C-alpha cells in the first residue's frame, strides 16, 4: 500500500522532516510500478502520461525503455526529488494538474499511488477524467487503482500497523497513519511523525474518496471510457469482497460528434 500526502492537504501542523526525500524509503513496494510498466509493454505504448507522478519512480522506469513520458504533479517538493534521480533527464516533468496534459497525445495515462482517491469531490474527479480523456488518443488506455471500500482498509490504519522509522539529518523519525473519521465514500486520516531524539510530534490530515466499483464504472462511462478489465490485486486476480484494490484498465472511446 503506497502512501501519499496530497499538496492540497488539510493541514494543522506540517511535518518537519523532508517527506518527499523519504517517500521512496517509506514506500519500498513496487508491485504497482511493475504492473503499469508491464501494461505499457503489452499495449506497446510509446507516449505515456503519469499523472500524480510523485518522486517519479514509474515515470523513470517506463522512460528507460525508450518511451516518451510526461509526468505531472502539483507538489513542487516531489518534483524536486524526481528531477534529482538517475534517469530524470528522459522525462518531461511538469508542475501542475490534469489540465497540464497535452491533448490527444498519450497512448497510456496512469495514476499510481492511489492518486485517484485524492479527488474527493465528484466534480473534481469528473474534471480529471475529462482531462485524461482529452489527453488520450482515441482508443488510448487509462489505468489506475483505488482502494476497495468493501475491504475496509481504513480499519488497519493504526500506529501499530503502519509505523515506519526512517533516518533523517535530525535523527531517526517515526512515521505512521491513523484513521480519524469514516463517512463513506470519504475517509479522513492523519499522518504523524515523531522525532525520536527530541520527542517533537507533528501531524497533518487528508480526506480520501473510497469509490466502489459501481461509482467508478459510472464516472468512467460518463467521461467516455469503457472499462476493459478490473483486477483485485497486482497479480491480476478478479475482484472479490476482500480484494484490497480496484485496479482499473479502461479504453477511451472516440469523442462523440
Which SSEs are present, and which pair or pack?
Elements: H1 19-26, H2 31-43, E1 47-51, H3 57-63, E2 68-73, H4 76-84, E3 91-95, E4 106-111, H5 122-135, E5 136-147, H6 159-162, E6 164-166, E7 173-183, E8 186-195, E9 201-209, H7 213-222, E10 225-231, E11 245-252
Parallel strand pairs: 1-2, 1-4, 2-3, 4-5
Antiparallel strand pairs: 5-11, 6-7, 7-8, 8-9, 10-11
Helix pairs in contact: 2-3
Largest sheet: 7 strands, mixed
| Cα end-to-end separation | 41 Å
The neighbouring-strand order within the major sheet is 3-2-1-4-5-11-10
Rg estimate, integer Å = 18 Å
Indicate the overall shape. globular
Q: Determine the strand fraction and express it as a percent band.
A: 25-35%
Regions with pLDDT < 50 over 5+ consecutive residues? Answer: 1-17
Q: Specify the structural class.
A: alpha/beta
Order of helices and strands: HHEHEHEEHEHEEEEHEE
Number of strand elements = 11
Helix content: 25-40%
Mean pLDDT: 89
Number of helices: 7
Amino acid at each position: 500500500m503506497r502512501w501519499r500526502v496530497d499538496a492540497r492537504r488539510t493541514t494543522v501542523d506540517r511535518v518537519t522532516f523532508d517527506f518527499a526525500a523519504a517517500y521512496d524509503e517509506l514506500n519500498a513496494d513496487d508491485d504497482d510500478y511493475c504492473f503499469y510498466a508491464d501494461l505499457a509493454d503489452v499495449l506497446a505504448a510509446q507516449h505515456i502520461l503519469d499523472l500524480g507522478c510523485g518522486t517519479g519512480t514509474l515515470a523513470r522506469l517506463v522512460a528507460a525503455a525508450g518511451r516518451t513520458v510526461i509526468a505531472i504533479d502539483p507538489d513542487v517538493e516531489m518534483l524536486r526529488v524526481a528531477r534529482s534521480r538517475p534517469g530524470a533527464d528522459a522525462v518531461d516533468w511538469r508542475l501542475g494538474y490534469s489540465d497540464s496534459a497535452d491533448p490527444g497525445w498519450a497512448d497510456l495515462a496512469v495514476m499510481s499511488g492511489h492518486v485517484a482517491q485524492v479527488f474527493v469531490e465528484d466534480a473534481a474527479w469528473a474534471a480529471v477524467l475529462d482531462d485524461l480523456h482529452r489527453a488520450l488518443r482515441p482508443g488510448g488506455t487509462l489505468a489506475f487503482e483505488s482502494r476497495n471500500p468493501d475491504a475496509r482498509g481504513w480499519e488497519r490504519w493504526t500506529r501499530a500497523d503502519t509505523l515506519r522509522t526512517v533516518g533523517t539529518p535530525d535523527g531517526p523519525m517515526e512515521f505512521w497513519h491513523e484513521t480519524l473519521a469514516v463517512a463513506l465514500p470519504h475517509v479522513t486520516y492523519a499522518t504523524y511523525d515523531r522525532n525520536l531524539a527530541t520527542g517533537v510530534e507533528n501531524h497533518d490530515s487528508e480526506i480520501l474518496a473510497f469509490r466502489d466499483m459501481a461509482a467508478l464504472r459510472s464516472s468512467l462511462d460518463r467521461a467516455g471510457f469503457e472499462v476493459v478489465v478490473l483486477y483485485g490485486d497486482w497479480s491480476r486476480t478478479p475482484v472479490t469482497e476482500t480484494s484490497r484494490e480496484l485496479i482499473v484498465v479502461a479504453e477511451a472511446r472516440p469523442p462523440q460528434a
